[in-house]
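Hello, quick one for you while I still have it in my head. A protein chain has come my way and I'm curious about its shape. I'm sending you its amino acid sequence along with the backbone structure tokens. I'd be grateful if you could look everything over and explain what you see. Here's the protein in full, and shout if anything looks odd to you:
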Amino acid sequence: MKNERVSYLIMEKKYTYILIILSYFYLQGCSTVEQKKEVSVQSIPNVIITTDINNESFSMTDEHALIYLLWHLNNVRLQSVVLEEFNIYGQEKLESILKCYAEDFNNPSYTFQENNFPAPTSIHQLIVNGGDVGTKKIVRLARQSKETPLYILVMGSMKSVKDALFLAPDIVEKIRVISVGTGIKPPNEDVCGNLNWNGWGRTEIFERFTDLWWIENDWAFKGMSEGEEPTAFFNNVINYGALGKYLTKSKIQTINLEEAIPIMFLIDSNINVNHPEFGGWTGNYIKPFPVERPNYWVDRAKTKKWNYRKPCNSWELADQVLEERKMNIILRRENMFSSLLSKLNKLYSPAIRENS
């Protein structure tokens, strides 16, 4: 009888252990599911676009970048579009592009709506002018951002970002900035030291906000438009709906996605947004000042002799560095184009055949 009692107690303990183990794995499984849900939600970034599409001399790159953005509006959560300066030219350009988006969105043969693209009217409501209105919009959205960062994708100058940071320095911990051509001009454009056309306000931000999360694609972006490949891609992509047809209005019959670099960075599935140094479609990056600027990256050159702190001190390498930076994009450009074509085929097929 005693032996039976002992056996019973042993079996009871075994069952207890088994139940504990099964409960553990069950809870772990639930936790994993919740984590996957959380990652899935957080993987769609909140973004603000700043653009100087009003600048007639350079508006083509902004137009093409905005069309690229519209084709990927289900990959990001657009919070606002800030027009740095208001004028009729910029307003008409933006209205024309959004009219094309509305035409494609409402076309029953296309799949924008079933792929969770936002309605055209909702996009119109997100557009604000620069100056005080745009600055306050950036500050308000940044402060509302609780669990996920707010990405500010700079397709114009740094003025709006600078004004927002100076007005509300506390948002530095809430935002992530990705800018194009905001550092010094490359050697094929100017002597060392002069800022790019987008550099307004850049120095003030760089000197004052050392903890700002910031990717500065300084020269590499030029690799996005060089060579024959962009023109060949242009001849293909113009067949996709009203947005594709809009591209044919460009004075130069090619596609220029230099200003789309900030958008590409977030869309590239191979990118680790927390570790830009791993690189992707938009090039390779380096954290040149890891101690004093722990969250700052710039496009990386292959040569280790380049002086990131004082480029003019190694300017004899500038031409080499320019080519190395561009090549990091050129070598991956085809993958980006292929990804976009795959996206467009899903959005427009089979109706695309009618336009080809």
In short: Residues 60 and 327 are 23 Å apart (CA to CA). The radius of gyration is 25 Å. DSSP finds twelve helices and eight strands in the chain.
